[in-house]
Amino acid sequence: MFRRLCEPTLSITVYIDGREVRVADGDSVSTALLCAGNLPVRRTSVTSAPRGIYCGMGVCFDCLVTIDGEGNRQACLTTAREGMTVKTGSGRRSLSAETL
Amino acid sequence: MISSGERDFVVIGGGVVGMCIAFGLIRKGLKVTVLDEGDRALRASRGNFALVWLHTKGIGTPEYSKWTRRSVSLWKQFADELKAASSIDVGLEQRGGFLLCLSEEELQGRIRARGQLQHELGEDHHPLEILRRNQLAAMLPALGPEVVGGSFCPLDGHVNALRLFGALHRACELRGVVYRPNSTVERITPVQNGFEVQLPGEKLSTPRIVLAAGLGNANLAPMVGMSAPVRGERGQIIVTERLDRFLDYPVGNVRQTDEGGVMIGASKEDADFDTLTSTPVLADLASDAVRMFPVLSRARVVRTWSALRVLSPDECPIYDQSKVYPGAFLVTCHSGITLAAAHALDLAADLAEGLLPRRLDIFSARRFSNVPTVM
Amino acid sequence: MGEVETTDFDLLIVGAGPAGMAAAVEAVTHGLTVALFDEGSNAGGQIYRNVSISPISDKKILGEDYFYGARLVADASSCGARVVTGATVWMVERHAETSLFSVGVLQAGSAKLYSARGVLIATGALERPFPINGWTLPGVMTAGAAQSMLKASGAVPEGKVVLAGTGPLIYLLAAQFARGQVPVAALLDTTPYANLWKAFAHLPGFLVSAYFRKGVGLLREVGRSTRIIRGVTSLKATGSERLEAITFEVGARRRTIAADTMLLHQGVVPQVNLAMAAGCRHSWSAERLAFEPDLDQGCRSSVPGLFIAGDTGGIGGALAAEISGTIAALHFARDMGKVATSVCDLKARSLKDDMKKVLRGRSFIDAFYKPAEVFRMPADDVVVCRCEEVHAGEVRAAAVRGAQGPNQTKTFLRTGMGPCQGRLCGLTVTELMARTLDKTPNEIGYFHIRNPVKPITLGALAGLKGDGETRRLF
Question: What is the rounded distance in angstroms from the CA atom of residue A26 to the CA atom of residue C312?
């Protein structure tokens, strides 16, 4: 649902929910998610309502995803890196699942 | 005492102590007005850790231990009555609670404490087990390697504090308690048939009055012939992001709420009116929690707060009835959640009768040497 | 062989936007040791986000104001201050006994404490909350978020894009999209018509300001390229898993249009959390409908040694931010004895004149683009606290039941207890309660904000354990 105005000078590969996605080096994970059309990004713990990217600057805490195994990370404040794994849609963060 | 018609009691203080007393009074069919302060008042209640806790409370003061046990045993009934009165379930879980030890020395201290308690209470002692690490692991699977052991009291538990407030307020509202916020009491004047309570721009009369104003009681008590030698002790608390349930029982300093966040606390500092939070203390609290449950190392802090416990010189409650003006009562304690049931179901009934029973004499402020005996 | 990097500075600046960068440059010229921290991966703040590495080759798309920032970034990076990016400041605490500040910084998951004689908080602004039905749906974003993506990655929304709200930024974004040939289905302008009368008194100042010159050109450009629907009095975003349509009203007429992306904006407000947690007094501004720190002419807050500059002190825009950063650093240098009072006063007078010039027209902008009440104090069924999913009706009911302010409301409803720490609900809750209780927002107050103001893990916090031992209950 988002696209780029020009081809990035350097592309890297990240994995979003298991899918291989090409993004620009330097993109935030939220930009990567939006360019790959991955919405919703999570469901709330109170009513399981779908949430996406809202503020893009780290103040709303909606864009919480699991990045490289660590849950509840803010996608808009995290820069995408080669080989990064991103998982959307987690409910409450499970610390014990992350240890495994 | 002749009722003034409009009300039978004024309760000064809208925290958990005041609201439990109010709830208990309306249970006895009385008319109650609660006077509360504004939004940024000290409010010890707001900083509570939500524990329903017996454990090693009252070492050196067996009557306090017994009183606490009474309240803990009444809590289920209290929760059920609150639910019936407000439609709000306060989420009481009472399957036991732990204190954990990070060193052999600490564990020996716990063993001694248990011994002292059993000696003081004799036949009346409540169940309290000392457990070694391997025995704890089954109930606390996320336990870290540094925990050498701990103590377990099967009567302990915890509750959803916010829902407790909601339930108390709702129950009182539905049953006709007049709740007056922004009503700081300036003066109480004993008069012919009771008391005149001076608020900013307004006077209320009442035949009977209960001082449940926490640290504010210190100023109010002398106005009605009593003394409330209380001081503030700051406790700071950390709350984490919501997590999948991994802790099934409360530990005295770490508990997981039913919403999923983990609360970490149990610091103490002398601080009469200062409710700041400070990094050195928070770091210490975080360090304890992480040593006890290493998975917590990756959990994020979502907020912190601090509040002032209201402590008497021996840290036990003060329950008093003014000798000079018998319609005035004083109720103060630092374990407002644990004692909530006893306050609502037991103590309030005594207040409704108009007389504090002799068995509660040991909780009078007269026990403190610097309080004049004429009171 | 290398030295251990010092963590002790004369001045520690939080935020490398225009105010922070200008302050760093000024402070260094007076011989102060300076550290400049920013949470982003590059200096520039939100307004000049990624300006030094912007992938957009056609400068006309973003406009020259944006690239002006590149010079500032270059100056700040080379002035001799220690510039640390990817550094999140989660705490500023003043120690009364020593008059020094402890500043908690998080970098790559681990926490470090810095100390400083003075702190400048220049954390800028955030978008004013825009609570409408469906604002939590995926596909609904702030205009600022879209603009950041444009600046940082040259990324633009596809499909049916609708802009909604009021304020210069939404028109700027519309122009930027038009220049980049991004189709916009409609710009739903919620500027109340009545504002024109209220803003009238400020018109003369506006007509001679840069805002007017630039604004006229911008409006013309957007008018030519984008369908603008004015006088919008209600907005509702609908969809099941994500945004599918928007229903809006203009007077008596209601219409629904299909939409894939909705970009909301109704002005920006100061980011108050760090300063409030540090103990700075704030007051409500009726003109700008926000809490602003109480500051003196030298940008000093109510906490000795703590300065606040830029939009954090009150929204004034990027150029005003630069000047206030300079003012703050100058006065701090004076307080440290590095600048004679007479010299400071002379320079301050000149800076004050500069400030007057760049703020010309600001009062008109504030009045003209003042958001309508319905979008600040929404209907009962609108979510106001996104973190805890609490509705406006519940807040009103809590006030009626006796909650006197946001902190008691927090106790009953959990509003403000989530990770955003009130950033997206605080102003709404305060205004809702003020209206319900017939009091001013200043009387109602704001959430009691505490450190850490950014999430820090328990492990990182535990790592800061010092030698002292806190007494424990058990």
Answer: 27
